[in-house]
Amino acid sequence: MSDFKDQLQAMFVPEEQIPAEHRIEEIHQREYLVNGEMRQWSGEVSEVYSPVMIPQADGNYKRKLIGTYPVCTETEAMEAMDAALHAYDNGRGEWPTMSVADRIKCMDKFVYKMIEQRTLIVKLIMWEIGKSYADSIKEFDRTVEYINATIDGLKDIDRQSSRFEMAEGLVAQIRRSPLGVVLCMGPFNYPLNETFTTLIPALIMGNTILFKPPKHGTLLHYPLLQAFKDAFPKGVVNTVYGRGAVVTPGLMATGKINVLAFIGSSKVANDLKKRHPKVNRLRAVLSLDAKNAAIVTKHADLKLAVSECILGALSFNGQRCTAIKMIFVHKKVADEFLKLLSAAVDAMKPGLPWEKDVKLTPLPEPHKPDYLKECIDDAIANGAKVMNEHGGVTAESFVFPAVVYPVNEKMKLYREEQFGPVIPVVPFEDIEEPIKYQIDSPHGMQVSIFSNDAKEISSLIDPFVNLVSRVNINSQCQRGPDVFPFTGRKDSAEGTLSVHDALRSFSIRSLVATKMNDTNKQLINEIVNDNDSNFLSTKYIL
Ligand code: G3H
Q: What is the CATH number of domain 292-485?
């Protein structure tokens, strides 16, 4: 055991042993974007420490400092708010009234400039949150694909709206219009991708944005501020730096935020929503807590179940909202499943993010190793065991995944969203047991069912589709492909995200209607022929 700990500890090497192309220069951000200006900051800053630790001369290990960023106050947050309100100008601003084709041109320019920053942003994702190099590249490229798909999605919507509809003697043109000022806050685990899955659709629909980067994964947005500045009219994208608890409640309390786009905990989301003085004016697009379960029945292909459960439970060390955070296994196959699962977990490659084929990396949240230990200790105290040889072995910011069995309702791991490399496994005899678990759970995002018996699967599909929002058969839980709807029930989400759904979530239908008589027909024809309105228009984007 201690040999293995030493082996893990040895992954943290002196800086000169890190491959030159992956070393990082400190970045000290002293500016932020508000009202089309990069404003200088000379106040308090926050230090950004990587989960990658460096051995020190005294024999201790220290998280590597990778830079600093401004800790702005409520004053700067309110300035950002004013800029966003001004740019929206009650829907009369340049951006909300701009034609869809012109908004798309701005977005194309942004993507072009974003791609120029790919190398630096990928490096920052690795260093700030410890995501592997391969997954950091994937996160960047998936985000670019998402933006391009969003542009195509908007073109589709616009084409469908470029016509008149007639009913009951009236003629109307129906389009989707922006909602106003959107406060966007993303999570640390997909700091670029998930933030942009709300920010980009909100932006392209004509809203103006207050963008607060996540606590871990802040610096990686710095290289994009200039791109936002260059690509969009002033005041359309404004940044809010500072401690969330200090800067966001006041913004909500103004009552001037029209949409809260937040990916994080339901507790914070509820607290923010309650600050808004007129909740009826606030639309919320939220992706929140989840504890997705896998159910391995006695008819499952165990090898497949193990490989999918590993992907589901341990991709990015289990730090995904969609991760499998609980496994129910039928008693008859439990021993075999646990043997295969434990061996597969122990065979996973730990290391620093840039190491070839690395699967497990250090954790960005400083308190996480202690919290995971607390969960494992609590499970052991309540009768469970760590089943895999290396489970729970910790070296500084790195925790080797633990398969914990048998988990029961007395344990933290039964209820809490561990958001890290611990796999709780619960034995069951009657299929009603996992169904009951889902009914009693505060979460309702996804489930994975492992079975090769069609009758058994179908008997589970019907109850589960009404308890969660996606039932995965013989495959892990996941958000993608991004064209599929991503949502959840209970405390797991509000609203739906997908390329198409997000465009709808950040807009409202508006229509122009009139009675069909000769005068009105002539008026409409004149407006359309003279291109006088961006809304009332039959122009077709190809
Ligand atoms: O953290 C939650 C993400 O939306 C998960 O996305 O399932 O594609 O990893 P993913």
A: 3.40.309.10
